[in-house]
# Entry
Amino acid sequence: MRKIAIVTDSSVSFDEEQLKETGTTTVPLTIIHDGSEYLDEITITKEEVNDLLRDNAVLTTSQPNLGLMIEAFEKIKEEKYDHVFVVPITHHLSGTHRTFLQALEEVQLDNVTIFESETLIGVIQHAIFLIKKLNDEGKSIEEIEASVNDLFKRNESYVIPETLKQLKASGRISKGAATMASLLKIKPILKLENGGTTIEKFATARTDAKAYAIIIEDMIKHGVTPETHELYYAHSEGLHTVEKFHKAVKESIGDIDYSVSVLPAVLATHAGLGTVAIQYVPKLDLL
# Structure
């Protein structure tokens, strides 16, 4: 079987068991607070980031540490992998993709595929599981690349923030979406749009139940069923929302497979506490 390495950034939100299962190497993203830089999940935890957000601290993020990326690729080069797959968060929301390219050029690895994911979190996780599955089945590099790129065209990401405060402050939402920040008693529903370029206003609702119904209706419109798709949830202290939403999904769509992750700290920094991301993807066997 081909010996492959899979590399991504810490926004994937894999736990240790998932990293081991997939053989994935992660490079930490950088969080800045009060003039100091912290490495995601190394020198600052999700819980510590949430505590800072709760105290209304000003947090920002920056490009990943180039030196750490170079170190990771040098180790991979020494271990003589047959091929390396790099799956970063969308380059529109982070400088990770660009820094990976710089590190690869420095180390001079040439047996590498670096994807333009144009997405984040659960879809990145799904892509990594897909790469491992197809490699285990003996698929060619070209077949793996085609299937992963197909996945990146066949998913959707919805965001339900508790408020738009953090997204507005970080400039991660479009002007149209930002205008909703001043509205009272409105539940905003956002979508990752334009190939991962911006987080756009999708709809608004007066109640949680109506917000859930709008998203589920859109999922049904795009052919999401338990037989063809699975769901990924990521939350920042919003597990109660995930549970309520998935109950509504089961009532409308059926008993669909799903996974739940904690929203990575670098994304919670921009999205704020209480935020929930909902993503649908095709089942692995259909890719």
